[in-house]
Design a protein that fits this description.
2 helices
Amino acid sequence: MKALFLAGGFAGFVLSSIAGVMAGRAPDLILRDAAIGCLVGALLVRWFWRVLLKAFKETLAVRRRAADEAAAAQESARAAKNAQLQKPAPAAMPSAAMPPTRSTPLVPLKPATR
């Protein structure tokens, strides 16, 4: 931040000095205006840098929030898919109300004719 503050001050000083020389002002007025331009330039760069950092932080927070929401949605979709794929565990003992299974069909099979 120090470097930005100094660069902004230097830019303000140079711009004010060039504007004063181009306007044909007296050297004492040029230096006074350049000093004021130095202060204004440094403060403007500092303000702009803070705005820029705040925007970066907000963007990063929004992206992280979106990534977290996407990961949560993906995890819930994966859990739902796994729940559908899993079969219920078989019962240890068949209940007494269930009739026994038959190994032979109820209707006798007809022999195949050619």
